[in-house]
Automatic annotation (TrEMBL):
Protein name: Histidine phosphatase family protein
Domain of life: Bacteria
SUPFAM superfamilies: Phosphoglycerate mutase-like (SSF53254)
CDD domains: HP_PGM_like
InterPro entries reported for this sequence: His_Pase_superF_clade-1 (IPR013078), His_PPase_superfam (IPR029033)
Amino acid sequence: MTARTLVVLRHAKAVHTSGLADRERPLTDVGERDALKVGAALAGMGLTPDLVLCSPSVRTRQTADLALPDAETLIEPAIYEAYPDELLTLIRRSDPEVRTLVLVGHNPGVHELVRQLADVDGDAGFPPGSFAVIEVDGEWAGLDAGREIAHWNPKKH
């Protein structure tokens, strides 16, 4: 079997401003710092993505740009407000050559996706800027389960 790595990342902390469309909400200063920490944490784990699938919202794009500035990023409109099954469908369409895939999205979809894919004891939560690293056996097209090998939360780091 061929092992692959899926990183499921929730965007970092975003502003809440009345009158601003949800998709247009940028990161706060804390969110920007946390996104940089995400990048450092992933690099420290030796994880270099072959591809980043990112929601089109401002906060997800900023998170991806700050955390993974050199990665090939594909803006995928379907990630915004997606349910776990919709996210899984997108992942399954990934090129078999992609070994490490990062998905940058929103709660509750990303959190539920992690819970669905990796049967983990307890629930560490998924606040803004959190990510889970899931080891996957086989091709993306057949993905239905994996093993969570890391869970990172900016509030704890």
